[in-house]
Fold:
Amino acid sequence: MIPVLFIDDNKELCTLFQIYLEESGEFSVFTCYSGEEALTYLKSHPVMAVISDYDMPEMNGIDLLRQIREIYPRLPFIMLTGDDSKDTAIDALNAGADFYQNKADDFEVQVLDLSHKVRVLSERHMAEDAAQKKGEILAAISHAAERLLRGSGWQEDIEEVLGRLGHATNASSIFVAGKGDEMSGAVVDPVIWQRSPDPGNTRLFDLIHAWWQEPQRAHLLEANQEIQDLFDPILSSHGISSTILLIPIFLARDWWGVLGITDQSVDRVFSPEEVSALRMAARVIGSARYRMYIEEIFRNPVEESLVGVFIEDKSRFLYTNPKVCQMFGYSREEIHNIVDPLIMIHPKSRAEFVSIVRDISNKKIPYKHFETAGVKKDGSTICLEVYLTTLSGNSSDCLFGNIMDVSDQHRARKALAESEKRFRSLFSNIRDLVFLHRIPTEGSEIIEINDSVCETLELDREHVLFRPLSSFSPREHEYSRILSHCENAATAGRAADQTCLLKRDGFPIPVDLVTHRIVMEGRAVLLSVARDITERIEAEAKIRTGEERLKRNMLLSLREKETLLREIHHRVKNNMQIIISLLKLQDFKVEDPKVHEIIRDCRSRIYSMAVIHEKLYQTDELTSIRLDEYITDLADRVMHEFDCGEDRVSFALQSDNPVLVDIGTGIPLGLILNELITNSMKYAFDQTETGEINVVLQRIKESLVITVADTGHGLPEGFSIENSSTLGIELIRGLAFQLDGKVAWKSDHGTICTLTIPYPKIEVGDETPS
Structure:
C-alpha cells in the first residue's frame, strides 16, 4: 500500500476522502487537521504523498508546503482548494506543489483524479529515490574501490566502507562475514556497522550467521543468488523484526562469504537498482579480499624466507625482509634509515662489492653470485653468500639481492680442511694396515693405502693399488674368507674377522681384519684396517702354555688340600668317638644315676658334633651337609642311648625341600636338636608309654623354621622356660642367639618348641669350597 497523509481542518471532509481513497485497496490514508499536527506526524512516519487543503487557520497550505520542502524536498505534494483562482494555483506550484486540485469538481471524479495523481507521484518518487540511493551507493562503492584496492589495512578500510554503504542504503546495520575456505585460510572475523548501537542487532547477526550457512541457503549463495527475506517466523520468535538482504561475495570463482544489510522496517523492499549496486559493492569487496590473498601468497614466502631479501635504490634500502634484519642485528626501521649500505660490508671487501654493483648497474653482467664479508651492528664479522641482479622499477632500475649468512658453513669448510689434513697425517702414519677399496659388486679394487701397507707387505704402491684385497691371501680358503668378509661388510655395514695376508717373500702374516662401509663422494666404499697380530699370537701361545701348567699345579694342590681336609674331618670324628668311648667306659664304673645321666648327656652332645664331621667327610664338597639326614641320624643315636625301640617312641621328620648347612650352622643346630630330643625322651613319656617325636623343617620367606613336637605330658604346670636355669635350656637359648634365631615354647597335647633362624644361603648343588 501507498502511505498518504491527508490534511484539512474540515474533519468530515478528511474522513470522507480517507474512506474513498482506501476503498481501492492501494492506499493507506492518515488524516491530520492542522499543519502543525502534520509536521509532527511526518517526523516519525514515512509517507509517499501529502494532500493538503490550501485554506486552513493558523498555517495555510502554502506555508505548510514551504516547511515540508525544507525538510523533505522530494516528497510528492498535492494542493486542494475551493478557490478557483489562478493566482492561488500559481502560488502553490511556485511553492513546490506537484499538482493543484480544485474541490469544486465532482467528488467521485476528484477521488479518481487524486488516486491517479498519487499513484503517478509515488511511482516517480520511488524511481527518483531508487536512482538517488543507487547514486549514493555507487559513490560509496567508488570510494570503497579506491580505499580497499589501495590495501592500507583490511579492518580499518572495511569499517569505513560499510559505514558509507550503510548511510547510502539507510540500513539499520550492514556487515561482511566470511565463511572460511581453503583459499583465504582461516575464518575472517565479521565486520559489522550499526546505525546506532543496539543489542538487538548483535542478536540479529548471531541468528543470521547461523541462518545463512544452512545448506539450503548456502547452496543459493554459492550459486551467486542474493537472498531477501523477512526472516519470519525465525526472527519474530526471538522478538526481532527486520528485513534482511544477503549478497554473496566471491574470491575469483569461489564463494567466500556475504555482504548483509538489515532494516528494522519489516516491509522494506530493496529495489533492483539497490540490489544491482550492492552486488557491485560485493564484487569490489571480493576483489579486495582476493588481492589480499594473492599478496599473501607472494609476501609470506619472502617475509618468512630463510634467505635475506633486499631491494636497494640510490644507496637506500626500499625493502628488507626480517631475515636481513636478523642477520645484521638491526631493526627494520634502523636498516631503512641507513644512509650508506656499504657500512654493512667489511672494509676489505667494499672495493670488490662496489665493482660488482657497478658492473650489474651498467649492464656489463646480468647478475653475480659471490661470497664476501659483512659487518653486523655490533661490529662482528660474518661471511655472506650474495646474489645480485637488477629489478625494473617505475623510473629506474633497483638493485635486488639475496644474501645468506654462511659463517657456519665457512667455519665448517675450514674445519673440514683441517680435519682432512689431520686425517691424511693420521692415515699415513698409523701403524695398522689401511686399505680403501671398492665394494665387491664394483670390483673390490684397492684405491688407496697408507704407508704401513707397503712397509709390512714389503711391496711398492703400484703393486698394491687396483688389486682386490682377497688377492693377498696365502691360501685358497683364506681367499674365500676375505671375499666373504668384504661382501658381509658391504651388506651389513661392518665385518670383523681373523685371516692372513701374504708378504712379498710369500710369508703369511696373521691379521685382525675390520672393515666398514663408508660413503665417499656419494659412493659406497670399504675401509679395511688390518692389524699384524704375530706378536699377540706368540704371546697367547706362551700364556696358554703357562695357564695349562698353572692349571695342572692348581688341580694337584686342590686334590692335596681336599685329601688333607677329608683327613682332618676323619681324625676329628675319630677323636670324638674315642672321647665318647672313654665316657662310656667311665659310665660302666659309675653307680650314681645322676652321674650316669650327666655322662649320657655329654656323650650325646659330643656325638652331635662328631656326626657333622662324619657327614662332611663322606660328601664330595666337604663344605655342607643335608640337614634332614643329619637330624635323622642324631635322633636315632639319642633314642638308642635311651634303649627305646620304635614300637614305644617313634620319630618322624618332614621337610619341604632339602636344606644344606655348613659346619658353622650345623653344630649349633645339632646341639639344640640334641637337647630338645633328649628332653622329650627324658620327660615326655613314662617307661611304659608310647608316643611320637616329630620334627618339621619349613622355609617361610627368608627364615628356616624348625618345629620339634612330642605327644608326651607337655610342660609341667607352673613351669617357666624364661626362669629355668638348667644347662640344657641355657644351652638352647645361647646357641639360638648365636644363630641370630628365636626359640618359642608351648604345651599343646605335648611339648612344642619352635626355632626360627635365618635361612642358610647354601643352595642344593652349590659346590663353592669353604
In short: The first helix runs from residue 11 to 22. The first strand starts at residue 2 and ends at 7.
